[in-house]
């Protein structure tokens, strides 16, 4: 029997996740769902729910850090899944949703696994510190389909993405960089659009399948000796660029893209490598394939730039004050403070400074202040203004003022406008007088003082509390050391009386046992809505109110409003309505109703079991957990040499959300031989935390173990014969042989011929003993030469390496094997070998079980 263990392992994990997900939902007639998450536990739970809900689902992450404890295995073949973080805006550094593999156990396992028949989109995410030792951060299994959009895969310990044979990967507007191995390994099909694969240590893309590049940069992946941008040229290329000529991209092959080496958040939420001025990638894309925006959300030019970043040459905008005129405070001059700022055009501002700086001492005379700003594309802008310090004793002149027409006139508000020339003396007072006659009666301060320059400066004041359909008079008044000046009168009329809002009560959403969101629409009819509330209660008498989360403003179109309410009772029908008020009056909406679902959750029921697989330094702790219908979010074992415990170990799998007792366990190590240990189970769900009773076990006594050769090399060619198990006639009942599992489908072979295989022994088997033999899949020639001039070498199945091991149940072992000299020569020529791993496991009674796997061996690159 030949088993694809790598796929089998993923399917088993997927089925477990799927089973957990069905336990969570257990609801017939599922519909498409959006799961909003803000921490790692919620992300893990959302993945399980999405796996179990046979619809198109979405998981939306808040900005923040997420560190899953297990690989996120995606198994829903019935509906596509999107996992996305916040998008942000091009000129603002937003907070990314960062998913890291630093806490994934076992160490160096995948962060994401896309199973067969599953379609997943990862959008607006920062993914890093995942994989390692030949394992990619993300694996797309055969028949799996993954799309990556506006995201960054950075600093991964292993390759960024592995696309297995018959798997499919599509990458748009994304960056894959700074990884310790390849950026992408392609055994299936991978298509890149306006993306950047750069600065990966072992190489950019290894292509053993189909590789399509469109408007994409593959560059600077040559840090290690012998590493290249591409191992295996692109199958198709459309206006793409590489830096060492290995991708076969055509006109832009072997070109320096002039990328900034450091990852930079230049707007949006995910970092990238911005293009420098003069890059050959600028404006070189196929305009028919250009997207509307880049990875940051910045608008693309047409033709667009190649890669994830859209370059623009628009310099920053700098805002500085008008000329500042002050009187000297001493012979040294005067200390002057000022406000200056800079903003980028769809770029962030990297540096901004003014010389001399604000709060510096300026000497008597006129000094130019020079301000400089540099944005993320290294565009530079400068702008200056003057600071004039006059000697003491100069006779000041009163301001010159002019009243200008009012603007932004509504029923109850307006903006008053004027100009003020300070005539060289600092204006200390600037106000508008206004009222329903030229007696005025009210004043409003200018929004900004006009300074101390010698030219006219526009000033304004926004006023409110006016009466509709009324004529108002106003004028400007300004004062400096030379005196006070008043402008001529001007007038304006407010608009017609307001109309009460138009309201429509909507349907409640996000209905839970004790909370919901009430919804409605409000049309302000042109008058600012000052009150917006929902009445609600268990009858149309209501009795309670909740304010709208946002007021709908003063426009002329219907705006959505809502209120989140809590403190409700489960299994209860509630009535509610919207009420909104503006200057035109108050309007209530029609009644609507909703019903809360069933009662509050109950804490788990737990029973501490007996420890198993007890050795000198290891043991497996066991228990049962009944979730009582609520998702178990925490499941741990407390253990130690007393009932104070002091250490914890997480359950290997969470028990879900069902109503029956589920077996849980944790394998612990680092124990002391011949020592009694105490332990108990502890779990938490929405109903609370439950702890089991104390149990004990004693580790085995320390025994002397003779050294044992772990691996051996068998250069002898063995025939390809399936091992056969014969049961002696005298045996009437025999325990089944252990089922050893290979948990990797690829390995990297060192220059000395060493490589590692991970193997696991099922917990229920107690222990596993086995031999491992690695052979070529087909007959090969062991060397290029002849053994004798008259005799040509014959092709044969070649044994590459072999070894043996013994492993406790529930444990994982890394077995190091060494290739024979002939095998090393073969791999040196081929670089990549597909080999057959045969595992023959047996127990003490002589029962045997054979498993055969196909594994990919890759030669390590010279460092």
SSE order and pairing:
Elements: H1 5-25, E1 34-37, H2 40-52, E2 57-61, E3 64-66, E4 72-74, E5 81-84, E6 97-100, E7 112-114, E8 119-123, E9 125-128, E10 138-140, E11 145-149, E12 152-154, E13 161-163, E14 168-172, E15 175-177, E16 182-186, E17 189-193, E18 196-198, E19 203-207, E20 210-214, E21 217-219, E22 230-231, E23 236-238, E24 241-242, E25 317-319, E26 324-327, E27 334-336, E28 341-343, E29 349-355, E30 360-362, E31 365-375, E32 380-390, E33 400-407, E34 414-421, E35 429-435, E36 442-445, E37 457-463, E38 471-480, E39 483-486, E40 490-493, E41 502-505, E42 516-523, E43 531-537, E44 544-547, E45 559-565, E46 573-582, E47 585-588, E48 592-595, E49 605-608, E50 619-626, E51 634-640, E52 647-650, E53 662-668, E54 676-685, E55 688-691, E56 695-698, E57 711-712, E58 741-742, E59 746-749, E60 754-760, E61 767-776, E62 799-808, E63 812-818, H3 821-830, E64 832-842, E65 848-859
Parallel strand pairs: 1-2, 2-5, 3-6, 4-7, 5-8, 6-9, 7-10, 8-11, 9-12, 10-13, 11-14, 12-15, 13-16, 14-17, 15-18, 16-19, 17-20, 18-21, 19-22, 20-23, 21-24, 26-32, 59-65
Antiparallel strand pairs: 25-28, 27-30, 29-31, 31-32, 33-34, 34-37, 35-36, 35-38, 38-39, 38-40, 41-42, 42-45, 43-44, 43-46, 46-47, 46-48, 49-50, 50-53, 51-52, 51-54, 54-55, 54-56, 57-62, 58-60, 60-63, 61-62, 61-64, 64-65
Helix pairs in contact: 1-2
């Amino acid at each position: 029997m030949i088993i694809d263990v790598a796929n089998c392992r993923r399917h088993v994990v997927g089925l477990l996740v799927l089973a957990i997900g069905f336990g969570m939902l257990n609801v017939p007639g599922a519909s498409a769902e959006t799961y909003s998450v803000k921490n790692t536990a919620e992300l893990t739970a959302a993945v399980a729910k999405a796996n179990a809900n046979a619809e198109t689902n979405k998981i939306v992450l808040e900005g923040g850090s997420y560190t899953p404890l297990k690989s996120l295995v995606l198994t829903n073949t019935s509906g596509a899944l999107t996992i996305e973080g916040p998008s942000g805006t091009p000129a603002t550094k937003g907070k990314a949703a960062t998913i890291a593999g630093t806490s994934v156990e076992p160490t160096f396992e995948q962060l994401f696994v896309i199973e067969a028949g599953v379609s997943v989109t990862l959008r607006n995410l920062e993914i890093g510190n995942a994989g390692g030792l030949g394992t990619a951060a993300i694996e797309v299994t055969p028949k799996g389909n993954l799309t990556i959009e506006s995201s960054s895969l950075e600093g991964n310990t292993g390759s960024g993405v592995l696309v297995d044979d018959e798997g499919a990967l599509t990458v748009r507007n994304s960056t894959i960089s700074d990884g310790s191995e390849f950026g992408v390994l392609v055994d299936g099909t991978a298509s890149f659009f306006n993306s950047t694969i750069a600065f990966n240590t072992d190489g950019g893309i290894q292509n053993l399948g189909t590789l399509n590049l469109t408007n994409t940069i593959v560059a600077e992946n040559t840090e290690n000796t012998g590493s290249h941008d591409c191992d295996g040229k692109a199958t198709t290329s459309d206006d793409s660029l590489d830096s060492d000529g290995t991708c076969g991209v055509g006109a832009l092959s072997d070109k320096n893209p002039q990328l900034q080496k450091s990852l930079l958040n230049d707007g949006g939420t995910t970092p990238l490598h911005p293009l420098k001025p003069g890059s050959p990638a600028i404006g070189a894309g196929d305009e028919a394939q250009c997207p509307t925006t880049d990875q940051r959300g910045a608008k693309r030019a047409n033709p667009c730039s190649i890669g994830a970043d859209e370059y623009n040459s628009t310099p920053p905008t700098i805002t500085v004050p008008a000329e500042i005129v002050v009187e000297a405070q001493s012979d040294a001059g005067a200390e002057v403070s000022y406000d200056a700022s800079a903003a980028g055009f769809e770029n962030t501002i990297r540096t901004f400074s003014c010389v001399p700086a604000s709060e510096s001492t300026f000497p008597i005379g006129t000094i130019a202040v020079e301000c400089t700003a540099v944005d993320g594309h290294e565009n530079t802008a400068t702008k200056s203004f003057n600071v004039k310090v006059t000697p003491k004793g100069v006779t000041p002149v009163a301001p010159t003022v002019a009243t200008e027409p009012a603007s932004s006139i509504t029923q109850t508000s307006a903006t008053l406008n004027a100009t003020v020339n300070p005539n060289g003396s600092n204006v200390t007072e600037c106000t508008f007088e206004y009222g329903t006659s030229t007696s005025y009666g009210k004043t409003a301060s200018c929004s900004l003082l006009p300074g101390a320059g010698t030219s006219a400066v526009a000033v304004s004041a926004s006023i409110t509390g006016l009466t509709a359909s009324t004529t108002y008079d106003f004028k400007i008044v300004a004062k400096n050391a030379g005196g006070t000046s008043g402008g001529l009168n001007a007038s304006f009329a407010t608009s017609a009386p307001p109309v009460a809002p138009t309201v429509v009560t909507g349907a409640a959403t996000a209905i839970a046992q004790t909370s919901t969101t009430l919804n409605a629409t409000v049309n302000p009819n042109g008058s600012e809505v000052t009150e917006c509330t929902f009445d609600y209660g268990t009858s149309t008498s209501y009795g309670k109110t909740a304010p709208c989360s946002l007021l709908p403003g003063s426009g002329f179109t219907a705006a959505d409003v809502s209120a989140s309410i809590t403190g409700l009772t489960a299994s209860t029908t509630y009535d509610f309505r919207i009420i909104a008020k503006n200057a035109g009056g108050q309007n209530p909406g029609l009644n609507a109703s909703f019903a809360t679902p069933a009662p509050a959750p109950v804490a788990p029921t737990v029973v501490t079991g007996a420890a198993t697989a007890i050795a000198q330094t290891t043991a497996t702790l066991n228990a049962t957990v009944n979730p009582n219908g609520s998702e178990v979010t925490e499941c741990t074992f407390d253990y130690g040499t007393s009932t104070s415990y002091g250490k914890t170990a997480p359950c290997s799998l969470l028990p879900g959300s069902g109503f029956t007792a589920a077996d849980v366990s944790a394998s612990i190590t680092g124990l002391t031989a011949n020592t009694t240990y105490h332990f108990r189970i502890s779990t938490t769900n929405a109903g609370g935390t439950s702890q089991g009773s104390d149990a004990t076990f004693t580790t085995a006594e320390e025994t002397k173990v003779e050294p044992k050769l772990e691996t051996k090399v068998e250069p002898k060619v063995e025939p390809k014969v399936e091992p056969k198990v014969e049961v002696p006639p005298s045996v009437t009942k025999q325990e089944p042989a252990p089922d050893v599992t290979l948990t990797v489908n690829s390995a990297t072979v060192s220059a000395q011929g060493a490589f590692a295989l991970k193997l696991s022994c099922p917990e229920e088997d107690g222990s596993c003993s086995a031999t491992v033999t690695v052979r070529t899949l087909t007959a090969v020639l062991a060397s290029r030469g002849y053994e004798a001039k008259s005799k040509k070498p014959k092709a044969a199945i070649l044994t590459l390496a072999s070894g043996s091991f013994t492993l406790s149940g529930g444990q994982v072992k890394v077995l190091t094997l060494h290739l024979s000299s002939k095998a090393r020569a073969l791999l040196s020529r081929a670089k990549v070998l597909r080999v057959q791993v045969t595992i023959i496991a047996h127990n003490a009674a002589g029962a045997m079980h054979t498993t055969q796997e196909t594994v990919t061996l890759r030669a390590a690159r010279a460092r």
